[in-house]
Amino acid sequence: MNQNAVLPNLGFGLRLRADYLPSFIGSEPELDWLEIITENYLGANEETLDQLDKIRSNYPIVMHGISLAIGSPWPLDQAYLNQLKKLVDRVNPAWISDHLCWKGADDVQGQLLPLPYSEDTLEHVVTRINQVQDFLGRQILLENVPIEQKSSQEIPEVEFIREVADRSDSLILIDVGNLLASSLSQEFSAIDYINQIPAGRVQQIHLPDITFETSSDGNCDASPRIIDPIWKIYTEVLDRFGLITTMIEREDTIPTLKGMLCDIKKIRKAALSHMENG
Ligand SMILES: [Fe+2]
Questions:
Q1: Residue 2 maps to a domain
Q2: Domain of residue 245, residue span
Q3: Is the pTM of this model over 0.85?
Q4: Ligand 1 geometric centre to CA of 48 (Å)
């Protein structure tokens, strides 16, 4: 499966939300790439797909899914996979990702449950990733989901994630916010975790809110607060993996596109400065 395929570093991007769409029609906001939520476009009408084609001609696009449920105990949803493949063929994304999780039987959209990290789960997940990658004819990325409650695991999360990627030749999307949440509940070091993941397996980062020294909307020059735990983990990511495709992810409060572009500017500048000066 695409052994040794090298996917590009796309730079700094954001998720294309419906309310940002008008700004991408007829103008080209300053950012490197866009992530779309796969499910928003499955079964979309031609008009919507045409609109996406136009945006696609100006920016690389990656597809991020929430429904694959790679670790669920029941069979993979072939109807979903068929739709996914059709969309992949149409959009031709730089890559596609989903979550290293499972979903309950009630199939609540967006429900991403952490897996029990055991040897049995590992084998189960690897088999299913192989099936998906064979069907789609490309590698997939899987994102770490947050564990909110202390739980005892047979295998530490970082080992599980590393083994899943190695055994299935899949790639990793590290969500720094999810990693911080899991490290706090499971009492492990997020920095050690980053350092135990092989560099060649990590393709993308989701970066949540970072606090800046000054954060007024008009000032895009502010630096991240050095003590911000998210910034601490992200600088470790940069040290280990180099400049890597990063999406600024806001889930609680969604800023305006102008605010997001400002955040991208700040993070890009801070990341480049970190790479130059340490
Ligand atoms: Fe994420």
A1: no
A2: 12-277
A3: yes
A4: 24
| CATH code for the domain of 88 | 3.20.20.150
Tell me the CA–centroid distance for residue 75 and ligand 1, in Å. Answer: 25
Ligand 1 centre distance from Cα of residue 143 (Å): 7
Distance 203 CA to ligand 1 centre (A): 13
Show the DSSP H helices in the chain as ranges: 21-24, 46-56, 78-91, 119-136, 157-168, 176-186, 190-195, 229-241, 257-277
CB 129 within 8 A of CB 140: yes
- For each of the chain's 278 residues, which pLDDT tens digit applies? 444 467 899 999 999 999 999 999 889 999 999 999 999 999 899 999 999 999 999 999 999 999 999 999 999 999 999 999 999 999 999 999 999 999 876 666 667 999 999 999 999 999 999 999 999 999 999 999 999 999 889 999 999 999 999 999 999 999 999 999 999 999 999 999 999 999 999 999 999 988 888 755 567 888 888 889 999 999 999 999 999 999 999 877 788 999 999 999 999 999 999 999 87
In a domain, 111, yes or no: yes
Nearest to 90 by CA among 129, 48, 131: 48
